[in-house]
Amino acid sequence: MFRRILIANRGEIAVRVIRACRELGVEAVAVYSDADAGALHLSLADRAVRIGPPAAAASYLSGDAVLAAARQTAADAIHPGYGFLSENHEFAAACAAAGVMFIGPPADVIARMGSKIAARQLASQAGVPVVPGETPSEQSDEAIAAAARRLGFPVLVKPSEGGGGIGMKRVREDAALLPAVAQSRREALAAFGDGTLYVERLIDRPRHVEIQILADHHGHVIHLFERECSLQRRHQKVVEETPSVALTPALRARMGDAAVAVARAAGYRNAGTVEFLLDGTGDEAHFYFLEMNTRLQVEHPVTELTTGIDLVAAQIRIAAGEPLKWPQDHVVRRGHAIEVRVYAEDPMRDHLPQAGPLLLYRQPSMPGIRIDAGVVEGDEISVHYDPMIAKLIAGGDTREAARRRAIEALRTYPILGIRTNVPFLIRLLEHPRFVSGDIDTGLIDAERQALVAGLDAEPPPEVLAVAAAENRNGVGGHLKRTVPDPWESLQGWRG
Amino acid sequence: MIVTPLGDGRFRVSDGDRERTAWAAGPASARWVFFDGRVYLVSATGSRDRGESRAAHDEMALASPMPATVASVNVAPGQTVARGDVLVMLEAMKMELPITAPRDGRVRSVACKPGELVQAGVPLVELE
């Protein structure tokens, strides 16, 4: 086992990984930018190292700065979390060259699976179906448009590199094609520094279902079932759950086998996720390989809650050379879990990200609820990073039990000082289509009116009375920075 | 209705035979209240932050919500716009943030240009 792990990330995932390190008896080194100087993850770690100014490019995205921090603290491994350096094959290679274990797959596997073209080829050769599409070798706007026309409308134009839905455009008619290509390229260049575009046939109303896999260094590859991630907004996942109501046992088994086949073909190591588009439901459904995420996923807790397997601990153990403890037929799942992502955004203004102080922030604590957060009351949500504040995960013996728990928890989750999507999430979980499981990747856009209607209604008399009562008290709005015991703030974690 | 402060920003709201919890924080000019799964921003006068007047509404809708870079300006003074038209496209947090017309109208002035870094709360376009 490692002696000291450096966590090259921030926010809730840094907190999550530090917690796993402590459970394994491994020292944790946090890194931080100037914007995060007082952040929760620093206070939980054994050591904390400043790695640069607020801009991510000069701090959390700087492989040199992170490796220098690892050398300075004599860390023998680096956990990249998700985002930032987690899928950067050059960084993984630099770690290997520096003699520091990168907790993730080998650099060449990250590189291969990070390229949509190579990953599709590999999946296809492994006998796993892929959605028709191509990266035109001629990359002019006209050539991209021609390739799109060959596939037929509707068509999807997206950056060949990167993910998260950045730069992804659906085009339904020829007139919209060239502007979409230009915009996709602009966003691709801005986000990834690479304007190479990819076009593929658009499957209408697909579900997004992904399979979690674990692969050790001793030839074992297992899957930990699926996560249904269809509820997305602009290709950012909002709600994830497991099991998926769309899968039958037979389909689940086929998708699990396909994910393991892709991982084996890739020479995969550590935790990874194989994403599929699902067209239809039940045994008649078709699934297509979408991409492989060569890292821990944001939504990993729903798998942890239902399988009882700690994925971060598993990542660390695999990287340390331990064999997997569970053969495939020992991996069982119980109950249902739903995760909602709590974002600092204004649902009434097209979900514009919000920045500002957390004047009041209180996490609910109740049976079956886990909250992964990287903030405490008094913190500031800054403009520099992703606007996700926390993840709330609800477990129950049935989907309905988990759904009701999630709603109840959200209703007692006050976050004041900035707008958040909490009221929107409650609406989403209460929506008849979510209740019945009739979900697809277009649901949020299609049901937008019902989801936001009245969220900006006049305050009821109770609210005006409370506002006035706070006035009379002269408490002054809890602007003082409270410094709770950090462990206390982790309530809701699985023990 | 009886509102009982429980301390630390928590309140018990007794409404006939029903007891509920609310939370409040912030200065009198912008007091935040969480009640029944909803968030409200209430000013000292008891009016809401949105929709007080058309001018205030415009100002909020036409300002950048955060420091951002102007990606494109799609309108010019004198141009007629319809509610929902994208007037300015901003970029921040790796995302494109559209500033859309809150109502039908005519553009009086444009206060930003492509590539410019704009601060939060400053109106980028003024409607007549």
Task: Tag the structure with descriptive keywords.
heterodimer; A: 495 residues; alpha+beta; Rossmann fold; 5-stranded parallel β-sheet; B: 128 residues; mainly beta; OB fold (Dihydrolipoamide Acetyltransferase, E2P); 2 domains; 5-stranded antiparallel β-sheet; 4-stranded antiparallel β-sheet
In short:
The complex is a heterodimer of chains A (495) and B (128). By secondary structure, chain A is α+β, with helices and mostly antiparallel strands.
Account of the 3D structure:
The complex is a heterodimer of chains A (495) and B (128). Helices cover 33% and strands 24% of the residues of chain A. Chain A has 495 residues and is an alpha+beta fold. Chain A has 3 domains: 100 residues, Rossmann fold (3-Layer(aba) Sandwich); 70 residues, 2-Layer Sandwich (Dna Ligase, domain 1); 246 residues, D-amino Acid Aminotransferase, Chain A, domain 1. Chain A has an 8-stranded antiparallel β-sheet, sandwiched between helices. In chain A, strands 3-2-1-4-5 form a 5-stranded parallel β-sheet. A 4-stranded antiparallel β-sheet of chain A has the order 6-9-7-8, with helices on one face. In chain A, a hairpin with a 5-residue loop joins β16 and β17. In chain A, α4 packs antiparallel against α5, α6 packs across α9 and α7 packs across α8. Chain A is globular, with a radius of gyration of 22 Å. The two termini of chain A are 21 Å apart. Chain B folds into 2 domains: 41 residues, no CATH class; 74 residues, RNA polymerase II/Efflux pump adaptor protein, barrel-sandwich hybrid domain (OB fold (Dihydrolipoamide Acetyltransferase, E2P)), CATH 2.40.50. In chain B, a hairpin with a 2-residue loop joins β1 and β2. In chain B, the strands form 3 sheets. A 5-stranded antiparallel β-sheet of chain B has the order 1-2-3-4-5, with no helix packed on it. Chain B is built from 1 helix and 12 strands. At the A-B interface, α8, β17, β23, α13 and α17 of A face β2, β3, β4, β5 and β9 of B.
